[in-house]
Amino acid sequence: MTEFVRTAIHHHLGVITLDRPKALNSLSLAMVRSITQALLAWRNDPAIRAVLIHSSSERAFCAGGDIRFFHDAGSATPRGDSALLEDFFTEEYALNHLIHFYPKPYIAIMDGIVMGGGMGVAQGGESNRLRIVTERTKMAMPEVNIGLFPDVGGSYFLSRAPGQLGTYLGVTGEVIGAADALYAGLADVFVPASELATLLGLLATATDVRAAAAEFAAPFKTQIDPAASKLAAQHASIDRHFAHDSVSTITASLADDGDAFAQNTLAVMQKRSPLMMCVTLSQLRQGAAMSVADCLRMERTMVRRSFESGEVLEGIRSVVIDKDNTPNWNPPSLEAVDDAMIARFFEPAWPAYAHPLRDLA
User: Fold this and answer.
1) 80 is catalytic
2) The domain that contains 165 carries what CATH number?
3) What's this model's pTM, rounded to 2 decimal places?
4) Is 64 a catalytic residue?
5) Strands 5-10 and 113-115
6) Enoyl-CoA hydratase/isomerase domain location, by residue (predicted)?
7) Whole-angstrom Cα distance, residue 4 to residue 9?
8) Does 65 qualify as catalytic in the annotation?
């Protein structure tokens, strides 16, 4: 359908293939539109029983949104006032909503890197979804590392992970593997990467694709034990430290814990944006009591405020543009973050009747 998204129909299975390997399938606006177009076309087509989304590359399912584009568009004058940037986030979040409530089985093969926007096109839905991980899966919501927050519905799916696991993943931006993803409820089944081609062939002819995939994956359960994951081993520690409702209190709790995991976690957090860790914590606490649509509407407002603040532009500059990995966070420390700075990210950017996602149900 576009240069970087291919679609096909195999028997009764609609297949979306992300094919931008040089950029690790980072999503552009054109890619978001192509995926949306395919899903809308197949939604009411009786010939399509299910949809599968995967990558043409073993390196990545999708590494997120195209953050170089974010930087270029967000650096326009006045800051953040770019029509294409506005369109990207509005349409991406609308796509996340479409996937979450898609009426047909939706299967995501999360092989390789799955981060940010990649999570948004994989985590949607509940009753109809099937999220497959492999031994190559590297999953994260790492937005605090670039001065942003875990969007694409992260308010919803991270806040519903067991205990404080979602808080830990959102505030630290840490990367996890297949066992951790299964343990945290961010994946459903494990299939070895070497078996994916066989699985695709099976699903193309299966009457019940979710049942067929689950049955296919059953023999591989012993290869990945969620109970042996890092998150499982540190669950009690994570719950104890990340149950606090301020990042300063979380870091103080970690600092008082001499355990290697606590000290390593503290060291990671000292590299993240102090402001955006605080914003993320507030976001996840609020999202726990909100619907999918309301979470996405909140995040759409937060994105507008993020580009106004400029923190995300500095984060992307340090990671992608100059690649010096020395962001000048503003403010530079947790002690300098106040409640008004955090609250600004949640202040309405539009009247309710004019919100770009006002029609999400």
Assistant:
1) no
2) 3.90.226.10
3) 0.96
4) no
5) unpaired
6) 14-346
7) 17
8) yes
